[in-house]
Amino acid sequence: MHSLTRFLAAVIGVIWAYLEPTIPYAILCVFAVLIDCLTAWRLNRRIKQKYPKAKTDGKLKSARMTKMISDLAIVWLCILLAVGVDEHLLGHFGGLHLGQYVAAIFVLCTAVSILENESSCNGSAWARAVQRIVTSKVSRHLDIDEDELEEIIHADTKKKKSRKSSSAEVPSASPAVECDDSAPAGSASEE
């Protein structure tokens, strides 16, 4: 019994010694994913407010949480692999810090996702500037493809322009394609 306890303590010690250096990187990845979830929730709320008839309900989904947890597990395994390669295979280079690079790449990709979430369906000037660079996530949150969303928005824009021209106002063209802020609320059809 005493030798079994020692063996288990040794195994736990070896595992901890291998995992412990990667914990700060994993925590940063978790923090980035939590911010991404928060911004995705905020985007869902903006879409629900703009298009009340849309399929989105403005809530977080457990299926997406499962994907987030599995993605974090894969990233941590990649960080562990990179640290192992750095220490055991490429140790003669003096430490390349590959685990840090893997974590930095993941955090950078998550930061792009955060920018996509915050700039989608957002009428502010900075959001329109960012939307010229990144992809809009509105169609993904509405569960329709980009062409259907573009048709809905252009149909709403045409209706608004015809109303404005009938009242003798000069219509202004909206540069945004996704979640046009000039479109009336409730214009998305349920499909």
What's this, in brief?
This protein has 191 residues and is mainly alpha-helical. 68% of the residues lie in helices and 0% in strands.
Provide tags for this entry.
191 residues; 0% strand; elongated
SSE topology sketch:
Layout: H1 2-19, H2 23-50, H3 62-89, H4 98-119, H5 125-131, H6 138-142, H7 146-166
Helix pairs in contact: 2-3, 2-4, 3-4, 4-5
Polypeptide structure, described:
The chain has 191 residues and is mostly helical. It has one domain. The chain is 68% helix and 0% strand. The protein is built from seven helices and no strands. Helix 2 (23-50) packs antiparallel against helix 3, helix 3 runs antiparallel to helix 4 (98-119) and helix 4 (98-119) packs across helix 5. The chain is elongated and about 85 Å long. It starts with a helix and ends in a 25-residue tail after the last helix. Residues 168-177 and 181-191 have low confidence and may be disordered.
Strand content: under 5%
Mean pLDDT: 77
Order of helices and strands: HHHHHHH
The total beta strand count reads: 0
State Rg: 24 Å
- Give me the number of helical elements: 7
Q: Alpha-carbon distance between the termini?
A: 64 Å
Helix vs. strand class: mainly alpha
State the domain count: 1
- How much helical structure, as a percent, in the residues? 55-70%
